[in-house]
């Protein structure tokens, strides 16, 4: 490594709001060496994306402006460069990739053309040369058959391949610096490992410098050379990875490290042993050979009859009262469909679901009535799960009123108690979801689930959309609630570390089937199925000395009912 | 959106609110002005709108008759002022009933889907297949000319746009997590439809109803112009334009002032619609 490629000094970004000026980035300085991977870590709103947007001057609104500082790229100060000059820098010297590859790729343009376009524009190649160069880049980012795949459209690829394509687009002009803004957050954990590995390979081969924005310290520990911790637009800590991880200087960094789920917890880390288990012989929930099929997407012009896709394919599961069961699997594995089928929100194709002794297929009315009053669901996206027009208090009061177990006069008091239960201040009763943070919204969502006084709560990826420290708080809340209220909890997640922390038992789903189930500690220590092992192995550990696994899946046995088009995930039920 | 509304009401002083929502403010002010004129018509109109004074037929605008007089010697200013009552009524009633009917049908069709949806949406297609005015005219011809026929025809034909708008919103909203949550909590369908989903779906239609009011106003004027709406001698802008037509080359003021009133009122509605859209965040 030689001198810095990029040198940022006192970068300040401000925005005027309501007459006052708010500082979004507060005098941030750091250097990026050639071939260095810098991890920018912080929670949402910490300004990590804003810094990178400021570097290429793609600020989200014209009101937001760089008010001070210098951004030196090879001696040029980007902060004072004109828009025309900036255009030559973007792409050619600094490439960017984003969290959601689907929305950043042009859906009506062939993958290869999107790469070739940049090459032609920035390097002045003719179309034939550009195509050859694009094919080569596609090969470099791991497309198995680049010459043929050049002509495919983005929708023909899976999420992981699209992210590879985005990286290829960013690399097309041979940039010196690659900014990767949460590049793997939307991806499954095994795919994430592959993409991270690709980024590291590219660094080694091309001497690329990478700024990796992420909220996951595990990723940083595995891939980065140095770490910069941001909070409220300020750079709290910046240093080599090992030093920051081993001896964090700032209290905030310490708390971030602590809330990483792969850290062993000092207390309460071992899942609670369900002492009451042997007493209850009757399972609360019994699923027997459940199959849920959907009509396949797309027009079946060339096929006769309807193609169906089995989202859940022959699942059997028993859950005892008071148990906490985690269901893990990647997107498209049928976890959410299973959850909705259990609650009677999706029609069952065949098989049985029985809740507290009554069968959903045979006594539908009766069972549904039971489910509606004794089971509740917590959703993934806390904002989408709450009616934006109702205050939290109105929303809870309505549930209590409809459920009809609380006398009208006692409802306001009960709303207060529910807010206490989820550790929300009672003043939140008058607020609407939009004025709440994600974590607060999720607490309100949990309060709504508790309002029915449920025996069973199904939490569907309920922390996936939250920052790590908030995740840890919500998990603590669940742990606390289930002991206090003797809840049965079905916890669906793609994050294995969280499941390991919270659950007694884990069920691993793959392509609509249960491939492994057992006590949490046993499964994590000794995965018997190759898929489980791959899932566990792909979690980036916060210990930098544990190597990042390859994230390769076991050779898949093609399921009978699932026609898969070019490696697309089955269906995303989220 | 209501939260934004409430927040605006609570925290932001009126002056700043108006500064930020100029379109809304100008639109509301224009409509307010017309409303005031309509309410105060008996007080501010200088003459009886249907009193005929043969001595001042086709008089140029002057101090005595600021907007001039028509071929019967009626004062145009007074007629424009009294016409405000009728034309505002046309715009409001002509929008309210299609809005209510369309919203209800759209909600039900979008929420239930399946056969209900198919039936209503094919009905919408059938109505849309006819040219709008032709359909209006045939209904009014069956019912007999007059304002109430016009309102009935509007209600029968105008709901389709609202039904489509709301249905599209409902299709999106019914798969939102809070709708699923409401089902899982045992809420009745009616409650989910009307209390949870409809308030979230309706903002776009409210904005549309403002531009629709413009169209209704012009339709009302057109129908009256054709002699099927408001009957003479009642003062209504469309009728006045029609009556002034034969004198357009010699007495331009007979058509100009009522025509201008239509334009300004339409302008007010359309500004209000844009402003509401901005304010309710419909385009976000």
Automatic annotation (TrEMBL), chain A:
Transmembrane segments: none annotated. It is found in: Cell inner membrane. Residues 6-257, 285-536 form the ABC transporter domain. It is a peripheral membrane protein. Keywords: ATP-binding, Cell inner membrane, Cell membrane, Membrane, Nucleotide-binding, Translocase, Transport. Residues 543-559 have a biased composition (Basic and acidic residues). SUPFAM superfamilies: P-loop containing nucleoside triphosphate hydrolases. InterPro entries: AAA+_ATPase, ABC_Ni/Peptide_Import, ABC_transporter-like_ATP-bd, ABC_transporter-like_CS, Oligopep_ABC_C, P-loop_NTPase. This is Peptide/nickel transport system ATP-binding protein.
TrEMBL record, chain B:
It holds the Pfam family OppC_N. It is found in: Cell membrane. Keywords: Cell membrane, Membrane, Peptide transport, Protein transport, Transmembrane, Transmembrane helix, Transport. Coiled coil: none annotated. The chain crosses the membrane at residues 90-116, 123-143, 149-166, 197-230, 250-272. InterPro entries: BP-dependent_transpt_permease, MetI-like, MetI-like_sf, OppC_N. Residues 84-273 form the ABC transmembrane type-1 domain. It is a multi-pass membrane protein. SUPFAM superfamilies: MetI-like (SSF161098). Gene3D superfamilies: MetI-like (1.10.3720.10). Belongs to the binding-protein-dependent transport system permease family. This is Peptide/nickel transport system permease protein.
């Amino acid at each position: 490594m030689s001198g810095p490629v990029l040198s940022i000094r006192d970068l300040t970004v401000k925005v005027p709001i309501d007459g006052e000026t708010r500082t979004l980035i507060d005098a941030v300085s750091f250097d990026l060496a050639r071939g260095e991977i810098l991890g920018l870590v912080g929670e949402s709103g910490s300004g990590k994306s804003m810094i990178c947007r400021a570097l290429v001057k793609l600020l989200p609104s014209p009101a937001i402006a760089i008010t001070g500082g210098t951004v030196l790229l090879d001696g040029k100060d980007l902060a004072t460069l004109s828009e025309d000059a900036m255009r030559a820098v973007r792409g050619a010297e600094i490439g960017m990739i984003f969290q959601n590859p689907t929305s950043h790729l042009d859906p009506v343009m062939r993958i290869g053309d999107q790469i070739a376009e940049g090459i032609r524009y920035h390097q002045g190649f003719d179309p034939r040369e550009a195509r050859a160069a694009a094919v080569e880049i596609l090969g470099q980012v791991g497309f198995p058959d680049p010459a043929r795949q050049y002509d495919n459209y983005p929708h023909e690829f899976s999420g992981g391949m699209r992210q590879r394509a985005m990286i290829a687009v960013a690399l097309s002009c041979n940039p010196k610096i690659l900014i990767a803004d949460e590049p793997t957050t939307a991806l499954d954990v095994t795919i994430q490992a592959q993409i991270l590995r690709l980024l590291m390979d590219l660094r080694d081969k091309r001497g690329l410098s990478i700024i990796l924005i992420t909220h996951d310290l595990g990723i940083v520990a595995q891939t980065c050379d140095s770490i910069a911790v941001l909070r409220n637009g300020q750079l709290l800590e910046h240093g080599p990875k090992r030093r920051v991880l081993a001896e964090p200087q700032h209290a905030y960094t310490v708390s971030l490290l602590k809330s990483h789920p792969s850290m062993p917890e000092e207390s309460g880390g071992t899942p609670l042993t369900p002492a009451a288990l042997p007493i209850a012989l009757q399972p609360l929930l019994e699923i027997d050979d459940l199959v849920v099929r959907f009509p396949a997407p797309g027009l079946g012009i060339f096929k006769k009859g309807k193609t169906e896709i089995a989202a859940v394919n022959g699942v059997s599961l028993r859950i005892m009262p008071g148990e906490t069961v985690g269901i893990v699997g990647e997107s498209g594995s049928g976890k959410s469909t299973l959850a909705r089928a259990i609650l009677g929100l999706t029609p069952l194709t065949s098989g049985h679901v029985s809740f507290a002794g009554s069968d959903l297929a045979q006594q539908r009315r009766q069972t549904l009535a039971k489910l509606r009053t004794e089971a509740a669901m917590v959703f993934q996206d806390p904002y989408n799960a709450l009616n934006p027009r109702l205050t939290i208090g109105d929303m809870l009061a309505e549930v209590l009123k409809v459920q009809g177990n609380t006398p009208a006069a006692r409802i306001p008091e009960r709303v207060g108690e529910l807010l206490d239960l989820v550790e929300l201040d009672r003043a939140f009763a008058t607020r609407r979801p939009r004025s709440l943070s994600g974590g607060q919204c999720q607490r309100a969502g949990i309060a709504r689930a508790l309002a029915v006084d449920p025996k069973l709560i199904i939490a569907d990826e309920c922390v996936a959309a939250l920052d790590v420290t908030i995740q840890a708080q919500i998990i603590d809340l669940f742990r606390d609630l289930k002991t206090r209220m003797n809840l049965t909890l079905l916890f669906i997640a793609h994050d294995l570390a969280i499941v390991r922390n919270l659950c007694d038992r884990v069920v691993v789903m793959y392509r609509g089937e249960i491939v492994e189930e057992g006590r949490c500690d046993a499964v994590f220590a000794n995965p018997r199925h190759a898929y489980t092992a791959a899932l566990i192995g792909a979690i980036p550990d916060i210990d930098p000395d544990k190597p990042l696994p390859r994230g390769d899946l076991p050779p898949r046995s093609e399921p009978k009912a699932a026609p898969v088009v070019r490696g697309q995930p089955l269906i995303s039920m989220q | 959106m209501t939260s934004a509304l409430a927040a605006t009401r609570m925290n932001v002083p009126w002056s700043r609110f108006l500064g930020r929502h100029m379109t809304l403010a100008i639109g509301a002010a224009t409509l307010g002005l017309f409303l005031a004129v309509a309410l105060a018509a008996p007080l501010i109109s200088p003459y009886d709108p249907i009193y005929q004074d043969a001595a001042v037929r086709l008089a140029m605008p002057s101090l005595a008759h600021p907007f001039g007089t028509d071929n019967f010697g009626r004062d145009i200013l007074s007629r424009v002022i009294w016409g405000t009552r009728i034309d505002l009524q046309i715009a409001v009633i002509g929008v309210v009933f299609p809005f209510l009917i369309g919203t209800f049908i759209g909600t039900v069709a979008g929420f239930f889907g399946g056969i209900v949806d198919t039936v209503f949406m094919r009905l919408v297609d059938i109505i849309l297949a006819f040219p709008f005015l032709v359909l209006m005219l045939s209904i009014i011809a069956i019912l007999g000319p007059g304002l109430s026929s016009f309102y009935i025809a509007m209600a029968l034909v105008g709901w389709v746009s609202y039904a489509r708008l709301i249905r599209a919103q409902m299709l999106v909203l019914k798969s939102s997590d809070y709708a699923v949550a409401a089902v899982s909590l045992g809420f009745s369908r009616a409650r989910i439809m009307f209390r949870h989903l409809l308030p979230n779906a309706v903002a776009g239609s409210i904005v549309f109803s403002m531009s629709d009011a413009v169209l209704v106003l012009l339709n009302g004027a057109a129908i009256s112009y054709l002699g099927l709406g408001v009957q003479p001698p009642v003062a209504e802008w469309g009728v006045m334009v029609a009556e002034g037509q034969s004198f357009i080359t010699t007495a331009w003021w007979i058509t100009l002032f009522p025509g201008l009133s239509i334009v300004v009122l339409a302008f007010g509605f359309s500004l209000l619609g844009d402003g509401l859209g901005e304010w309710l965040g419909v385009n976000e």
